[in-house]
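User: Can you predict the 3D structure for this chain?
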Amino acid sequence: MNRGSIDVLALGRICVDKFLVLDRFPAEDTKVEVVDTMLESGGNSSTAACCVNRLGGKAAFIGRVGDDEGGRYCLNRLKEYGVDVEHVRIIPGGATPMSHILVSQETGTRTLLSQKNPLPPIKLKEADHHLIHEAAVILLDPGCTHLAPELAQIHQRGAIVYDCEIRQDGLDAMMVLADYFVPSADFLLAGKQSGPKSKLISQIYSLDRKVAGRLIVTAGADGAYYMHEGILYQVAPPNLPIIDTTGAGDNFHGAFAYALSRGYTIHKAVKLSVATATLSCREFGSKAAQVELDWAEQVVETLKSQRIS
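Assistant: Here is the predicted structure, written as structure tokens:
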């Protein structure tokens, strides 16, 4: 793939994440002590953009924030990671959304309490079009699903990766547009966090018949599944300590987009994504444990693409 001056153009969500670290998840109507708190900027595509730069790429981000303290904080965090934020919309009088994330020290898992975004939907401007034409890869998250028809008209060059998280209007058009359609196993299992492996595999084959591009499925502790030339493969994650899974999926998408921008094969791209996502779980927050490419590549060498069928 020919590379432009921008490796990955990420469009979509950005918010303030407030972390509450707990000894364990509370039962209903009980009291649990908060062990620690922290702030971080969050959002699918914005976190992925930081991951791209951490791996050594060049990312730009298009999204929107309010002209409030939260918005300034989020933009400053992206700038600290070297992400181009020139095309982020600052909405006068707008409130930047905040998510509250409960992290269990006991399990390393997290529960996310998200706020419905009070800001207006993303609209592309003429000035955005050159970025879309220039980028080697375009990464979209659920906040951009409504842009599928417009992108189909103006998109010319870069591979489109879609982070599918929820069922919403416009999803059918995105299934046609995306070169790489990347949902979670939770999405395929209709909101259930787990289910029989046979059911997941059945759902993967069913969805593969509906998407125009390639299908990759993130599966948490099971790593990732992907289709290639009619064959289903799995890459299991490395055996590493898990402290906090917040942002693992976002870092998977960031690493995958980066890998495509560098011309990786689908097999190596998924391995890099699984390695990067797992390594990101070693500390609290979505960005604290993002790694440089050399470290991720060392883990990639330990991973295998297992043929499922």
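The longest strand covers residues 34-42. The domain at 8-13+42-95+120-307 is CATH 3.40.1190.20 (UDP-N-acetylmuramoyl-L-alanine:D-glutamate ligase).
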